[in-house]
Amino acid sequence: MVRLDWAALLLTATAVARAVTANTPSIVPGAYIVEYEEDQDSAEFVSSLDGEASLRRDLRFKLFKGASIQFENVKKAEEVAAKVAEMPQVKRVFPVRRYPVPHHTVHSTGDNVEAMLSKRQDSGNDTFTPHLMTQVNKFRDAGITGKGIKIAVIDTGIDYLHPALGGCFGSGCLVSYGTDLVGDDFNGSNKPTPDADPIDNCNGHGTHVAGIIAAQSNNPYGIIGAAQGVTLGAYRVFGCEGDVGNDILIAAYNMAYEAGSDIITASIGGPSGWSEDPWAAVVSRIVENGVPCVVSAGNDGATGIFYASTAANGKKVTAIASVDNIITPALLSNGSFSVDGNSSAAFGYTTGEPGEWNNVSLPLWAVDFNTTDPADGCDPYPASTPDLSGNIVLIRRGTCTFVQKVTNALAKGAKYVIFYNNVPGTATVTARVDGIEGVAMVTAEQGETWIRALEAGSKVVVSLGSPTSSSKFLANFNNTATPGFLSDYTSWGPTFEVEVKPQFSSPGGMILSTYPRLLGSYGVLSGTSMACPLAAAVYALLINVRGTKDPKTLENLLSATARPNLFRRNGASLPFLAPVPQQGAGLIQAWDAAHATTLLSESSLSFNDTDHFNPVQRFDISNTGTKAVTYSLSHVGAATAYTFANESTITPITFPGELTADFATLSFEPSGEFTLQPGQRKIVKVTAAPPKGLNAKRLPVYSGYVAINGSDGSALSLPYLGVAGSMHSATVLDRRGTLLSRSRDSMNTPVPANVTFVLPPAGHANDTSYRNRTELPKLVATLAMGSRLVRVDVVPVSNCTRAAKKATVVFGTKTLGQPEGMPSLYNARGTFEYDWDGQLDDGTYAPAGLYKLAVKALRIFGDETQGSEYDAAETVPFRIRYLEAPAKVKRQDEKC
Ligand SMILES: *[C@@H]1O[C@H](CO)[C@@H](O)[C@H](O)[C@H]1NC(C)=O
Ligand SMILES: *[C@@H]1O[C@H](CO)[C@@H](O)[C@H](O)[C@H]1NC(C)=O
Ligand SMILES: *[C@@H]1O[C@H](CO)[C@@H](O)[C@H](O)[C@H]1NC(C)=O
Ligand SMILES: *[C@@H]1O[C@H](CO)[C@@H](O)[C@H](O)[C@H]1NC(C)=O
Ligand SMILES: *[C@@H]1O[C@H](CO)[C@@H](O)[C@H](O)[C@H]1NC(C)=O
Ligand SMILES: *[C@@H]1O[C@H](CO)[C@@H](O)[C@H](O)[C@H]1NC(C)=O
Ligand SMILES: *[C@@H]1O[C@H](CO)[C@@H](O)[C@H](O)[C@H]1NC(C)=O
Ligand SMILES: *[C@@H]1O[C@H](CO)[C@@H](O)[C@H](O)[C@H]1NC(C)=O
Ligand SMILES: *[C@@H]1O[C@H](CO)[C@@H](O)[C@H](O)[C@H]1NC(C)=O
Questions:
Q1: 205 included as an active-site residue
Q2: Which of 883, 874, 873, 845 has its CA nearest to residue 756?
Q3: What is the distance in A from the centroid of ligand 7 to the CA of 134?
Q4: Fewest beta carbons within 10 Å, which of 220, 384, 656, 661?
Q5: HEC profile for 461-500?
Q6: Predicted model pTM
Q7: Distance, CA 16 to ligand 8 centroid (Å)?
Q8: Residue 497, ligand 6, Cβ within 6 A
Q9: If you take atom 14 of ligand 3, which residue's CA is the nearest one?
Q10: Residue 354, preceding peptide bond in cis (omega within 30° of 0)
C-alpha cells in the first residue's frame, strides 16, 4: 500500500521556500503531476521513487495516464522531479498549481426559509430574460429541453436537495451522478477527504450554476433552467473555502468524461494565456474525443487585453464571455416607512455588512438633496450638522468608498446608513467601521422618493426588521445602462500565441438562479461563471435538435449565428463593435444555431502577428438545406484595441483600453456572389491586410467579422483577429518591477545592496522555532506580458569563492543553478513572488556568501535555446548566511 502523506502538503504560514504568486496561480510546493507514456501502476511507480514521494492522486484514466505525487522532502523535490522526468515510463512532469473559485459577485440572496420553495404555476411560455436574449425560450416553448443529455458540472457541488434541483441525488434524479473529490474542509492546500456525496451546503457557486442549466419551475421567482430535461453530474472540486489544485481538476474532468457526460462545464480558471498549460491540454484532449467542454472566460476584464484564463484558453476549449442581463433582478428585504406620521408604505432593501438592523425605526437625515451628485457624502459633514445618533443617514452611492461615506456619517454620531443606488437595482454593501451597526441599500428610485420628501420638509421614519425575520421578495428593474452589452468584468483574450479567445458570449451579469437552501435558496450573481452554464445548456438543446454532439460542428454553428454587439462604456454605446478579444463571435443565438442550414468549417480565424502573418486563410461554406442559396460575403470591422498606451509602456492598458475605429481590409475569393445547390460546399479564400496607419510598437489588435448573407435570409458571421505588430518584440520582463525584498515585507519594498539575510539552517525553512531570527530574500518578478519560460540564476558576486569556482555559465550569466522550483513555465502576465531559502534546483544549498538573482524571461515566440531571446534583470547583491548550519552543510568562507 502506498502511504498518503497529505500532511506534507500543508502550506503553513511558515517560511517554506515557494513561489507565492500575487496574481498568477500559485504552485503547491513539492507536488507534481506526472504523465506516463503508457498505463503504469501508480503504486508501483511511486515505490520506484524509493520513498522520496507519496501518491497525491492516481490519475489513470482513458485519456490521461499518470499520477500526482508529493515529495516527502520538499527541499529535494526539484532534484528528484528532474530525475523522474528522465524515467522511460514518464512522458512529462509539471507542477501542481492552484485555482480559486472565480471572483463572482453575489448581489442578493433569498430567505433561509422553506416557505419560499412554494410551487409556481408552470404554464405559459418561457419569459426568463437570459433565455429571451439567447433564443433559448423558443426551445422550451417547442418542448425541447435537453432530454437524454448528461451535463457534468465541475464546481463546488450542487445542493441537489433543493426542490428546484430535483430534491434527490442518484439514478432517476435531476442530479443523477458525480462525486465529491475534496470534502468540506478542503482549501487547496490541505488533505482532501473525498466522499460520494457532492452536495453544496456551504459555497453556493455550483448550485447557482446548476440552476442556470436545469432549475425546475417549482420555484416562486419564475426561474427556468435552460435545459430542464437534462441530467446533471456534480463533480465537487472545492471545499467551503479556498482553492483547488489542477491535479484534482484533471481527475474531475477525466471522471466526468468516463461517466459518459455529453457536455462538461466548468466555471473555474486562473490567468494564463497559454493553451499548452497542462490543465488546458487535458480539457483539449477531452474535446478531441468528442465531448464539448465550455469554460468561463474569466472575470479579469479590468486587467485589459491579453489576459486569457486557463482552461478556457485551451485549444478547442470553448471560452464563454459574459454580457449583462436586460433586467436587474434583486431579492429584497421588506421594510416600511411613513411620511409625516401617515400610514406606512413598503419598500425593499438589501442588508449590508454590518447588518445589525434589529427592528430599527428612525427618522431619515440626508446631507443634501441633490440626487445626481456623484460624490454625495464623500466630504466631511459641515460643522452645523446635528447629532445623527437618532437618525438613519441616507447617502447616494458613488465616487468614494462606502467606508469613507459611513466614516463621515459616524463622525456626526450616526450608527445606521442607507445608501441609495446610482445604477439599477441594489447591491450588498460592505462597510465595516467600528461604531456603525447597520448599512443597507435601496434603489435609486426609492432614494429619490425619500429625498424629495425630506426636501419638502417632511419627516420620513424608516423601519427595518431583523434580517432573519423580514421576508424577501423579487424586484426586477430594467437594466438601462448595459442591457445585453459585454460585462465590464469579462476577461479579454487573445492568447499570447494569438489564438482567438473567447469564443462567444452569454448572459452572466445579474443572473437569478438557485442557491443552497442553507444560504437563502435563491440568489442573484454576476460573473462569466453564470454565462458558461447557459452555454452548456445550449449545447444540450443543439444536440437534441441536430442529433450531433461533435464539438467542432456545434461550436462552428454557435459562432456563425452569434450576434456581435457594440462596445459600451458608462451607459453609452461607442460607434463600433466590441473587439473580438472581448466578445468573440458575440451573443449566442441558440435557435438560429439549431436551425442553420448553412455551415461554416471554422469558428474563427487568426491572422497571427506581423512576424508570423498568415494573411491567406480558407474556410468552407456548406449548403445543407433543401434549396439553392446564393451567398454574398462582406466584411464588418470591430474596434482595434491598442495593447500599450504609448511606445514606452510595456504593460497592457487596463480596461477599457484604447479603442480605435481602424479596420483591416479583407478580400474574398470568390469575390462576387455565388450559388450553392443543396449538398454543395465551397472553399472561400480570405486575404487580410491589417489596418493602415497604426503604431505597431503599441501592438494593436485588430478584429472583425466576415459576414455571410444568404438569399434564404441567413446571416452568418465568422470572427477573426490579428496583431498589427510583433509579439516577439514586446518586452516581457518589467525590470523596474523586478527586485529583491524581504519575505515578511508584504509591501515588497526593495532592499538596498548588500543586505544580509540570516536564513534558517539548510532544510529547516519551515521550522517555526527559527522564524523570529531569520528572514528569507524575496524575489519579486513582474511580467509585463506572458512568458512561456522564466529562469532564475543564483549568481555568486565574488569571483574567488569556492562557490564561484563551481559556477557554470548559462546564457552569459555565471550561475550556481536555479533556486528550487525554478524555472517557471507558462506564466501569465503579472507579478510573482518567490521566497528563497538557499536551496538550489539540484537539491543542495548555496553556501553563505554574496549573490544576485538574475531573472530571464523568454520572449513570446522566442527560441529558448538562445540567450538573446530572454529579457533579463538582476537584483541588487545580497548576502546570505545560515543560522546554525547543520554539520552536513559546511560553512564556506566567502573570502579568497
Ligand atoms: C518541515 O520540517 C520538518 C522538520 O523540520 C519536516 O519533518 C517536514 O517534512 C517539513 N515539511 C515540509 C513541508 O518541508
Ligand atoms: C408560446 O410559444 C409558442 C411557440 O413559439 C407559440 O406558438 C405561442 O403562441 C406562444 N404562446 C403565448 C401565450 O405567447
Ligand atoms: C487550509 O486549512 C488548514 C487546516 O486544515 C490550515 O492550516 C491552512 O492554513 C489552510 N490554508 C489556507 C490557504 O487557508
Ligand atoms: C447636483 O450635483 C451635480 C454634480 O455636482 C451638479 O452638476 C448639479 O448642478 C447639482 N444639482 C443641484 C440641483 O444642485
Ligand atoms: C421596463 O422595460 C419594459 C420593456 O421595455 C417596459 O415595458 C417597462 O415599462 C419598463 N419598466 C420600467 C419600470 O421602466
Ligand atoms: C502564430 O505563429 C506561431 C509561429 O508559427 C505559431 O506557433 C502560433 O501557433 C500561431 N498562432 C496561431 C493562432 O496560429
Ligand atoms: C557590496 O559589496 C561588494 C563586495 O563587498 C562591493 O564590491 C560593493 O561595492 C558593495 N555595494 C554597495 C552598494 O555597497
Ligand atoms: C517571537 O517574537 C515574539 C515577539 O517578539 C515573541 O512573542 C515570541 O515568543 C517569539 N517566538 C519565538 C519562537 O521565539
Ligand atoms: C568576475 O569575473 C567576471 C568575468 O568572468 C567579471 O566580469 C567580473 O567583473 C568579475 N567580478 C569581480 C567582483 O571581480
A1: yes
A2: 883
A3: 66
A4: 384
A5: EEEECCCCCCCEEEEEEECCCCCCCECCCCCCCCCCCCCC
A6: 0.89
A7: 19
A8: yes
A9: 187
A10: yes
pLDDT in tens, 180-217: 999 999 998 888 999 999 999 999 999 999 999 999 99
Confirm or reject: Cβ of 877 under 6 Å from ligand 7. Answer: yes
115: pLDDT strictly greater than 50: no
Q: Which of 10, 766, 768 to mutate to test the pocket of ligand 1 (most atoms within 8 A of CB)?
A: 766
* pLDDT (mean) for 110-138: 76
398 Rama sector, left if φ>0, alpha if ψ -120 to 50, beta otherwise = left
Model confidence over 617-633: pLDDT tens digits?
Answer: 999 999 999 999 999 99
Which residue pairs, CB below 8 angstroms and at least 24 apart, start in 43-50?
43/1, 43/2, 45/89, 46/2, 47/2, 48/87, 49/80, 49/84
DSSP label at 839? B
* Residue 308, CB-side half-sphere exposure with 13 Å CA sphere: 35
* Residues at CB less than 6 angstroms from ligand 8: 769, 772
Candidate of 602, 612, 614, 860 to mutate for ligand 6, largest count of ligand atoms within 8 Å of Cβ: 612
Share of residues in the chain with pLDDT > 70 (%): 93
User: What is the model's pLDDT at position 602?
Assistant: 98
Atom of ligand 8 minimally distant from the CA of 771 = 13
- The pLDDT of 275-294, averaged and rounded, is 95
The DSSP secondary structure of 399-449, one letter per residue, reads: SS-HHHHHHHHHTTT--EEEEE-SSSS----B---TT--EEEEE-HHHHHH
529 a catalytic residue: yes
753 lines ligand 7 (CB under 6 A): yes
User: In this structure, are residues 316 and 288 in contact, taking their beta carbons and an 8 Å threshold?
Assistant: yes
User: Structural domains in the chain?
Assistant: 6-100 (3.30.70.80), 106-326+481-566 (3.40.50.200), 330-473 (3.50.30.30), 597-723 (2.60.40.10), 733-882 (2.60.40.4070)
Cα separation, 263 vs 323, in Å, equals 22
The three cell numbers locating residue 773: 531570527
The answer to whether the CB of 242 is under 6 A from ligand 3 is: yes
From the candidates 111, 155, 277, 793, which is the catalytic residue?
155
Per the DSSP assignment, residues forming a β-bridge with 35 are 66, 92
Grid cell, residue 155, equals 464546481
Tell me if residue 208 is catalytic.
Answer: no
